Amino acid sequence: MTANKRLKRRVRDRARKTGESYTAALAHVRHRPEQEHAVPDPTTTANAPILVVSGPSGVGKTTVSRLLAAEFDRSVHLQTDDFMASIVSGWVDPNSPEAEAQHEAVGGALAVSAMGFAGDGYTTVVDGHLFPDGVAGLAAACRTRRIACHYVVLFAPLTTCWERARGRGEGRWPLEEEPFAVVHARFAALGLDRRHVVDALGRAEDARDAVLVAFHAGRLEVTDPIT
């Protein structure tokens, strides 16, 4: 067997054991060839949970997520905007119809990072415009690794979100009222089970406390299709 065939076999073996894509498994094997057979057993690793904090722009996702992460001894806070900003060339406006492939690439990178941290014992708080379909995919991947995935949507009226967004000024991308309202309307129309929704009209600390209560009670865990 040639060295190339042996490499491909190791990559396929790792991808099958971990559920990673072929590309992700290839990167791991190339950088850590001495550990290609040392895939952690998901039944024995001390995995931490992933908590996805979603909601419309201006609702306070990032502030609340930072407060939530601070409540755990070992924690990580990941923002989808940071992953989006990593794109140097070929960036597409996330509000445009042509951005679907970009969303999938960013979502995949975010999911791999979140599961990596959680697998190493860090409670991982992820914030961004994450909708039920995408979170259901993440939860399915998490289940294969024995990682609990939780989902909460923070919500407040459009006027409140718009005022907050304007008050903090321009972010990485232009603040435009029409696409802002479109995203808010998508969240308003979700019709989610109330256990996955937290009122964020008041203080960020109050929203954090409400999320923590629901989280510790197990009400946010994604065990079935999110409705």
Shape: globular
List the strand order in the largest sheet.
2-3-1-4-5
Query: What's the domain count?
Result: 2
Number of DSSP helical runs: 9
Give the fraction of residues assigned to helices: 40-55%
Distance between the termini: 50 Å
Structural class: alpha/beta
Give a quick account of the main beta sheet: strands, pairing sense, barrel closure: 5 strands, parallel
The low-confidence parts are 32-45
Instruction: Give the name of the CATH architecture of the largest domain.
Output: 3-Layer(aba) Sandwich
CATH C-level class of the largest domain: Alpha Beta
Q: What is the residue-averaged pLDDT?
A: 85
Q: According to CATH, what is the topology of the largest domain?
A: Rossmann fold
CATH homologous superfamily label of the largest domain: P-loop containing nucleotide triphosphate hydrolases
Can you give keywords for this protein?
five-stranded parallel β-sheet, globular, 227 residues, alpha/beta, 5 strands
